[in-house]
Structure formats: structure tokens, C-alpha cells
């Protein structure tokens, strides 16, 4: 589960994906388990839920380069694109509204574009979190 955003720009709507991952880590009781993984240039926490092993990932890069971290983690943890969930902001959804999307286009999102390019696939499931238009 990769939370897309601009690392270090906490509290901005564009980094909503990372905020969602922080919340998920707290709910899974692994919030203290974040560690820097230099191989994939990300903060990583491992968790388990409903019999699944999860890799929580917050890329330590700008949004336009998040895909490099996601692709590196996929290689390290032996994940296929269809095993990956991307959590990202969506300007076209009202603030706080969410939608799940499987595959398809980037819908203009540069972080998703970066992931599709780096993984050479658009088969990732996406949790789109509405941030509304300014």
C-alpha cells in the first residue's frame, strides 16, 4: 500500500496519500514501526491484517518521482502491479469523498503517472481521496 505525496510537505492536500498511510499504520498498531528503507527511498512499515502481510510505503521523493520508490519496493518485496494499492489525492472528487479504481488512466495525476511508467503497468488498485478544487 503506497501513499503518494510530496515527502516533507505534511499537512498539504497533495500529500493526502501519506496522511492516509499514517492513519492506517496507527490502526494496525505499527505506527512506531516506520523505518527508512534506502533501497527504495521510502519510509516502510510492515503490518498484518485479515491474514494478509502488508508493506506500507511512503516514498521519500517528490510526487512526480513516487513511482521509482514504488517500483523498487515491488522488486524488493516480490510484488506484481496487481498486488499494489496506490492511495492518492483526487482534485475531481469533493473533499473527503473516496473511490476505488482498478487500473485505467492516470486521470492527470502525476504520482500515478510515475507509478505506471516505473512499473510498466496500470494494473494497480487506487484509492482516490477527494481533496476538491481550490
Automatic annotation (TrEMBL):
<keyword id="KW-0378">Hydrolase</keyword>
<dbReference type="GO" id="GO:0000049">
    <property type="term" value="F:tRNA binding"/>
</dbReference>
<dbReference type="GO" id="GO:0004045">
    <property type="term" value="F:peptidyl-tRNA hydrolase activity"/>
</dbReference>
<dbReference type="InterPro" id="IPR001328">
    <property type="entry name" value="Pept_tRNA_hydro"/>
</dbReference>
<dbReference type="InterPro" id="IPR018171">
    <property type="entry name" value="Pept_tRNA_hydro_CS"/>
</dbReference>
<keyword id="KW-0820">tRNA-binding</keyword>
<keyword id="KW-0694">RNA-binding</keyword>
<protein>
    <recommendedName>
        <fullName>peptidyl-tRNA hydrolase</fullName>
        <ecNumber>3.1.1.29</ecNumber>
    </recommendedName>
</protein>
<dbReference type="InterPro" id="IPR036416">
    <property type="entry name" value="Pept_tRNA_hydro_sf"/>
</dbReference>
<comment type="similarity">
    <text>Belongs to the PTH family.</text>
</comment>
<dbReference type="Pfam" id="PF01195">
    <property type="entry name" value="Pept_tRNA_hydro"/>
</dbReference>
Amino acid at each position: 500500500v503506497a501513499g503518494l505525496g510530496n515527502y516533507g510537505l505534511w499537512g498539504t492536500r497533495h500529500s493526502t496519500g501519506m496522511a492516509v498511510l499514517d492513519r492506517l499504520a496507527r490502526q494496525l498498531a505499527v505506527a512506531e514501526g516506520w523505518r527508512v528503507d534506502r533501497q527504495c527511498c521510502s519510509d516502510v512499515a510492515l503490518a498484518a491484517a485479515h491474514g494478509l502481510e502488508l508493506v506500507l510505503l511512503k516514498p521519500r521523493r517528490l510526487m512526480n518521482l513516487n513511482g521509482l520508490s514504488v517500483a523498487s519496493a515491488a522488486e524488493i518485496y516480490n510484488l506484481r502491479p496487481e498486488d499494489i494499492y496506490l492511495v492518492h489525492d483526487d482534485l475531481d472528487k469533493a473533499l473527503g469523498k473516496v473511490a476505488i479504481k482498478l487500473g485505467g488512466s492516470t486521470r492527470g495525476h502525476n504520482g500515478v503517472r510515475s507509478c505506471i511508467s516505473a512499473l510498466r503497468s496500470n494494473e494497480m488498485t487506487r484509492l482516490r481521496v477527494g481533496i476538491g478544487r481550490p
